[in-house]
Amino acid sequence: MTKIEDGAVVLFQGDSITDCGRNREIGTDLGRGYALIASALFASKYPEKQVQFINRGISGNRVKDLQQRWQEDCLDLNPTWVSIYIGINDTWRRYDRNDPTSVEAFAEGYRDLIVRTKETLDAKLILVEPFVLPVPEDRKRWREDLDPKINAVRELAREFETLYVPLDGMFAAASTKAPSAYWAPDGVHPSPAGHALIANAWLEAAQA
Q1: Is 102 considered catalytic here?
Q2: Which SUPFAM superfamilies does the protein's record reference (predicted)?
Q3: 26: in domain
């Protein structure tokens, strides 16, 4: 049986992968990615639970951006479940804008989100690990920056006993069945098939 309770409010938080073109003017819009797919599959399987899903992902966000809007876009919404998927932009900005985020600052900011959530809400947490695939070729260089951040997220999940969605290994494994670009054309933003992978892994973590 799923861990998600009757009448739950599930909040998806993150960057462009979560945002995925959602209409900001419509508070119930879930975008076109994994948040929509996961919520649709869940709702079709558990209609009696009447679970509400909310998407507040914003394209380009880093951990520090989530920190700045956490009160309004998380705590004030009073969710019973909080799904956090952040980190790839904390790596990307080092390479495209020479604006790096140290692994220490990343972990500290992420910890702050978790602590504030736990102190304010009686909410369960799902942490989604960031991933990158080697398309185009220059993405391979990103591993030195991203890998320690992935480890930081894993350590936080262990420390706070959250649910966890291990995307990096999953996308690597999927890339043995079809080319990396099939799952994420730019190595970062998932294709529809990639979003379906995330949605299924998210539902699995929630035992749904």
Answers
A1: no
A2: SGNH hydrolase
A3: yes
